[in-house]
Amino acid sequence: KWLNEDVHLQERINPSNFASAFGSGYLLGELMNKYGLQEDFTSFSPGSNTDAKLNNFSRLEPSLRLLQVPFNSNIVADVMREKPGAVTSLMYQLFIALNRKEQQNLTS
Predict the structure, then answer these.
(1) Which of 18, 26, 59, 105 is 20 to 30 A from 76, alpha carbon to alpha carbon?
(2) Residues contacting residue 43 through CB under 8 Å, at least 6 positions apart
(3) pTM, entire model
(4) pLDDT > 70 fraction of the chain, expressed in percent and rounded
């Protein structure tokens, strides 16, 4: 619901495409861009080859670190391989961090 109704990503997300939708890092970049945290989103690649994925995830790293979302090469590898639970875990951490950011901006 959050991704489809609140964020309005370009691709509709459902349980059957959840892991594959985020496997390239492109939609993660779009998500971060919608929250004002990924100014270089135009440099992201929508492709699904290894070079595109590595480009996208390397661009995501500073933004995820800024939000204090756990992010390392093992997490990237698991997300890129669409390992069961990897995307769900990352998205949960991201959801919490983005909500925390919004709350801080409202109260700062």
Answers:
(1) 105
(2) 55, 59
(3) 0.89
(4) 97
Kindly report each contact of residues 37-42 with a partner whose C-beta sits within 8 Å and lies 24 or more positions away, as own/partner.
Answer: 37/63, 37/66, 37/67, 38/63
- The two tokens of residue 88 are 């769900």
Of the candidates 21, 2, 34, the one whose C-alpha atom is nearest the C-alpha of residue 80 is 21
- Burial tier of 27 (Cβ tally within 10 Å: 0-12, 13-18, 19+): buried
